[in-house]
Structure formats: C-alpha cells, structure tokens
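Weekly modeling sync, notes
Attendees: S.R. (lead), two postdocs, one rotation student

Agenda item 3: backlog of single-chain predictions. S.R. asked that every request posted to the team notebook include the full sequence so nobody has to chase files. The rotation student volunteered to paste the first one in as an example of the format we agreed on. Action items at the bottom.

Example entry:
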Amino acid sequence: MTPRRFLAFLLPRCRHVGFFNPSGGIARIGHMAVAYWMVHASNSLYPTNNFGDAAILFCFLFLYLVFADPGVWSVNKQ
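Predicted structure, as returned to the notebook:
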C-alpha cells in the first residue's frame, strides 16, 4: 500500500472520531465553494434558481465544523 493510499484511507476515518475537524472543515469549505461557483453559479446566481442550495448548505455546515468544539467523545478532546 502506497503512502498516498494509506492517507486516503486513514484520514477520513480520523475525522469520524473528531480528529482533524478544523483542517478537514477548511478543505471541505473550499470544495463546496468551488463546486457552487463552477457548476451552479454558471446558470444563475441565486441558489434557489440553480439548485445550488445543497452546496451552500454544506459550505456553511463545514464552516460550523471549523469553529465548533470536537465534542465529548472525540479522540483529541481537551
């Protein structure tokens, strides 16, 4: 198993238990913003007209994960 495949396997599972929440959230915010502007905003700028409401919802959800506490059951709680 190459290191790249190992990290691709390990990192999403670490996020499930609360590890790397802020860094994962920042990467996902970027992905959702790019998805909205490349796919949905080309049709119309309003999310209700271009079916981009899910991309914006996930963008704000991941923004919340960046600033939220990892949680009580997290591996790296403080």
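Discussion: group reviewed the output briefly. The chain is about 70% helix and 0% strand.
Action items: rotation student to repeat for the remaining queue; S.R. to check formatting next week.
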